[in-house]
């Protein structure tokens, strides 16, 4: 391959050419009065914490509307924001709420409050506010129209889209027109929710950027089956005539699971995407790059080859690899969006072909320190193997906390970790934090759980499981008075 010399496969990456440090924390993990964290005052306080700690990056998981398991990697839209992240506090400040519900605020109470704010807005908004709302509706029409109708129909049908009446399932024009008229008020509410989310998000982004903090987002490679995009664009997904998937996505048995992971997402019809010059991906990443300064492409190896599982299989064991047109896709992406700032999540089964694609695209990969201490000196996650074009982590949202991982090691493995790290006097996880910050990798990301020294009970997600995930939250009482200065000292020490 000679693509490394091709300017169409050479992104700018200006933000990733200097040494930086950041923190991994999903918005839902922020403190607050509702069932999940939101875009209100605690988000701004967290930005201030990053600044005081010398950090310049806030990494966040996908922010789309979640489903019953709250996984941010299974969303009903690749464009929409999660309404649960809307801050009622900020609606009160805008005068669109008379009072805050009493804490703790349930999801139902929050939804009702947002609906009441919508009524107040449509009754009494100023001309400037109405103009801003209409501008948003017009700018986002290319996805918002389908998404709002999809959500309204979901409420009416109480079923997945492939189980709707066949005329709605198959998007017959007359049925859709009748639904838009019948569900007009619900559609208006959904649009207002998205207006609130986007407005609050961009205010937070501006606040962060003005203080030198970059927002680092996450783009899942696959799309949830029960999503507006699959319903509206069935032609680009490998589906049967009745809307069910023929094959589904996942990964083979690996570090996390003996039976692999059967994610269940429908797979792309890459030939159809290519015929349309990958407009689905171009539009998707264009939208995400307005919300974030950097983007992690989840499951990057799926752009070289993906694990195809027959839909009737209950596990991922009986899948097989199918080649994907990653080189062609990224050539188009960088031609259309030349200033994309991307990071490849290159974990899992990484072959020479996957590594060649990553290098051809000049994308930083990921180095996880928790993976480094097995297999001998040639383990690529060991710090002395790191290169500048990498992002080093103590662990990710899919790993145990570093303290939980360390205490779960057997005595021999724990002794090896201690020996490698020089038998430091600091207690874990600070030796691992120090190792990450000292790495040659230009970007070091530390999960907040590690900064707070929390054990495995504070883990965010355990891959291959469906219970007890995605609901971890911190409290400001967990942040010790010396935490900011301690981080700032280390960040300066290692030139970040």
Automatic annotation (TrEMBL):
What is the scientific name of the source organism? Candidatus Thiodiazotropha endoloripes
Which protein is depicted? 4-alpha-glucanotransferase
Per the UniProt entry, the Enzyme Commission number(s) are: 2.4.1.25
Matching entries from Gene3D superfamilies are given as: Glycosidases
Which keywords does the record carry? Carbohydrate metabolism, Glycosyltransferase, Transferase
**Reaction(s) catalyzed by this protein?**
Transfers a segment of a (1->4)-alpha-D-glucan to a new position in an acceptor, which may be glucose or a (1->4)-alpha-D-glucan
The UniProt family comment states: Belongs to the disproportionating enzyme family.
Q: Does the record bear Glycosyltransferase in its keywords?
A: yes
Q: Which GO terms describe its biological process?
A: carbohydrate metabolic process
Organism lineage string: Bacteria, Pseudomonadati, Pseudomonadota, Gammaproteobacteria, Chromatiales
Enzyme class comes to transferase
Q: Does the keyword Cell division apply?
A: no
Molecular function GO terms recorded = 4-alpha-glucanotransferase activity
| Stored InterPro entries | GH (IPR017853), Glyco_hydro_77 (IPR003385)
């Amino acid at each position: 391959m000679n693509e490394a010399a091709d300017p169409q496969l050479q992104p700018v990456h200006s933000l990733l050419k200097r040494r930086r440090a950041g923190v991994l924390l999903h918005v839902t993990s922020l403190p607050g009065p509702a069932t999940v964290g939101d875009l209100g005052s605690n988000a701004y306080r967290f930005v201030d914490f990053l600044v005081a700690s010398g950090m310049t990056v806030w990494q966040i998981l996908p922010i789309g509307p979640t489903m019953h398991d709250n996984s941010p990697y299974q969303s009903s839209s690749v464009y929409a924001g999660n309404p649960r992240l809307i801050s009622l506090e900020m609606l009160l400040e805008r005068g669109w709420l008379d009072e805050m519900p009493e804490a703790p605020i349930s999801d139902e109470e929050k939804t009702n409050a947002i609906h009441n704010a919508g009524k107040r807005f449509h009754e009494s908004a100023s001309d400037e506010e109405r103009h801003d709302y209409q501008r948003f509706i017009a700018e986002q029409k290319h996805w918002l129209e389908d998404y709002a109708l999809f959500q309204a129909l979901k409420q009416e049908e109480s079923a997945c889209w492939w189980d709707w009446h066949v005329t709605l399932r198959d998007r017959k024009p007359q049925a859709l027109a009748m639904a838009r008229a019948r569900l007009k008020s619900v559609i208006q509410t959904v649009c207002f929710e998205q207006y609130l989310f986007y407005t609050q998000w961009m205010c937070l982004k501006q606040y962060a950027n003005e203080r030198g903090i970059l927002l680092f987002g996450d783009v899942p490679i696959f799309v949830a089956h029960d999503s507006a995009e699959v319903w509206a664009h069935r032609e680009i997904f490998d589906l049967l005539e009745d809307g069910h998937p023929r094959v589904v996505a996942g990964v083979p048995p690996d570090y996390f699971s003996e039976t692999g992971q059967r994610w269940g997402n429908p797979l792309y019809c890459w030939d159809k995407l290519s015929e349309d010059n990958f407009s689905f991906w171009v539009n998707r990443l264009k939208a995400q790059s307005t919300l974030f300064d950097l983007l992690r492409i989840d499951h990057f190896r799926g752009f070289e080859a993906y694990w195809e599982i027959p839909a009737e299989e209950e596990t991922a064991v009986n899948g097989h690899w199918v080649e994907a047109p990653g080189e062609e896709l990224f050539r188009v992406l960088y031609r259309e969006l030349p200033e994309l700032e991307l990071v490849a999540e290159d974990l899992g089964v990484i072959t020479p072909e996957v590594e060649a694609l990553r290098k051809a695209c000049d994308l930083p990969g990921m180095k996880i320190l928790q993976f480094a201490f097995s297999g001998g000196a040639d383990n690529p996650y060991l710090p002395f193997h790191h290169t500048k074009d990498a992002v080093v982590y103590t662990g990710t949202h899919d790993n145990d906390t570093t303290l939980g991982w360390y205490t779960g090691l057997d005595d021999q493995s724990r002794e090896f970790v201690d020996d490698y790290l020089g038998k430091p006097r600091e207690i874990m996880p600070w030796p691992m934090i120090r190792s990450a910050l000292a790495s040659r990798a230009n970007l070091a990301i530390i999960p907040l759980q590690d900064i707070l020294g929390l054990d495995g009970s504070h883990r965010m997600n355990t891959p291959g499981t469906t219970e007890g995930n995605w609901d971890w939250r911190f409290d400001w009482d967990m942040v010790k008075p010396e935490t900011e200065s301690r981080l700032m000292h280390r960040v300066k020490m290692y030139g970040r």
